[in-house]
Amino acid sequence: MKLPVRLSDLPKGATAVVEHVHDAHVSDPIAQRLRDLGFVDGEPVRVVAIGPLGADPLLIQIGSTRFALRRSEAARVTVRQEAA
Amino acid sequence: MSAATVRIALVGNPNCGKTALFNLLTGGRQKVANYAGVTIERKEGRFVAPSGRTLQILDLPGTYSFDANSPDEQITRDVLEGNYPGEAAPDLIVCVADATNLRLHLRFVLEVKRLGRPVVLALNMMDAARRRNVVIDVPELQRRLGMPVVETIAVKRDGAQALIERVDGEIPEGATAVVDDAISRADLHAQVRDILGATVSMPRQTAAMDDALDRWALHPVFGLAILAVVMFLVFQAVYSIGKPMTDAIGDGFGWMGEHVSTLLPPGPLQSLITDGLFGGLGTVIGFLPEILVLFFFILALEESGYLPRAAFLLDRLMMSVGLTGRSFIPLLSSFACAIPGIMGTRSIQDPRDRLATILVAPLMTCSARLPVYALLIGAFIPMHHVLGIFNLQGLVLFALYAAGILGAMGVGWVIKRIHRDKSEHALLMELPSYRMPKPRDIVIGLWERSTIFLKRLTGVILALTVLMWFISTFPSPPAGAIGPAIDYSFAGYLGRGLQYIFAPLGFNWQISLSLIPAFAARETAVAALATVYAVGGDAGTGGLAHALTANFSLPSALSLLVWFAFAPQCMSTLAVIRRETNSWRNVTISFSYMFAVAYVASLLTYQIARLLT
Fold first, then answer.
1. pTM, two decimal places
2. pLDDT tens across B529-576, in order?
3. Which of B307, B312, B430 to mutate to test the interface with A (most CBs of A within 10 A)?
4. Which of A29, A53, A64 sits opposite B69 (nearest CB)?
5. Quick one: which H or E segment has residue B230?
6. Of the candidates B220, B325, B426, which has its C-beta nearest A73's C-beta?
7. Could you give the ipTM of this predicted complex?
8. Please, are residues B125 and B40 in contact by the beta-carbon 8 Å criterion?
């Protein structure tokens, strides 16, 4: 098992498992929304695509759902990558 | 429970098919499409169930959770709990979930269950789930959730049969209400995982088709190229498919007008009928095919699921001009009409992003501008071929659309400069599965649009045309007057008064005058010009296009096109801005900035074109 990294640091096509979502500030609604959408401990995620301009936003698949997240949003999610 | 009416509320995550189910149950024709946030208002419908009871169905906007931080989710929650003013709590909640996406949707089902009210779960899109070999153990799911579960296919005629039978039966007991707090919310996901593990088997997480299409559609290079080609083809098609039909309709009405006029005695009535009705309205109705071609493509794109992809590709670009990827869909619908576009901005959570989108939405070329553009382009721009494949008229039309888009980007950028704030704006947008557009939905959409157009035509546009005819005909010139009669009419005086403002833009008094009815409905400018020139006797036999080329120059025509691209128009749009933002200040800002931009841009166009020609 590798060290935890931010979801925004993963390359295209990478898979990982969510560790937690941290609040960027007190009662951060974006972080709460991410948790509601299923970014919780143990959920597998995959970086499906990366936006064409400035490599932003990221398209993240979690379960059967694909969400477009901006880098700043994805940076709130800490993930661990399983050892290859 | 044997009350005559049972009140049922449909809730669920965005884009799970609530409105499609609503339409299927009530025979309604509410708009459905394939992206999150199509339904922005509560809709109500009713039908009589086999038992003879009336079922009243409430369709609510989709929501991911009942997070109290988000005002619209709070409203949905209040409605369900009966805390919403003027709205009794529903007798039964039908929670709709996409059977192919239960990991996300079941969490919300559990949240609804915790309200402690009677709930039935409708597993929708069962057809897509079967195609993808998703197997759901419904009895076990029902047992674990502690609520009745039925399967539905909202896009099939009898797809809601099981649901109707269930809601027509006895109302189930609600679970015990649970207090909402962060800890118990976090626990919901674990519950969902347990339930899914025991009841659902899914060979693969996503549809293979989606993965294959997205590889191209979201590719950094090909994705943008595909988007550009799609957009360009749509606007070329509007011209190359719609135009021949428009010409045929225009010719037909001209022919009818001539025949009718021979039946009537010469005089004001003959002039009203031939000039005003056949000339004016006939010209406007001719543009229906072009509007329908445009709508056909917008509806097909909306249904396909491609639009959120386009929003994904353009998010960064739109962010750099103070908008968001989420602005893309409201702005694209503004090409049809700014009013649904502005209302569609409700799906943008961030207030600043939303206001910016509302302020630039009227710059998108709405379909009411098409008649004006098509008339002027047809009259003034030669039908050259450029590079063998494009025609010059199509290119000019494309340039006008582009001018609106670039203008919107410029305005967005300025708003961003003025309105500096460091707070963060979220995107967090779900990309739905691709879907083949349903011909029935497209036909309904086109039918609705035609009805709206014809209502406008026989309502406000007809009334204004008759009014224009009246003020162009009366009062009659005094005895012994030299000069054309129309110069002595109300229209003549009014137009010449307005010309003081618009002469620098190259507008003659007839054009200046036509801008007034255009403020009520843009297409009326065409009918008004037709009427004024016909009454003035300048129209001759060549129709309106001929009258225009005979009466004004190319620089004036270009300037008028530019004016229509930017001008603050259509009272209804301003009224919607007032309603959606609840502020006259925003209406004033929007009116004044568009007037200023239109005036300066037309002035420059006219003066530069005059130097060059």
1. 0.84
2. 877 777 666 544 456 777 788 888 889 999 999 999 998 877 788 888
3. B312
4. A29
5. helix B222-263
6. B426
7. 0.94
8. no
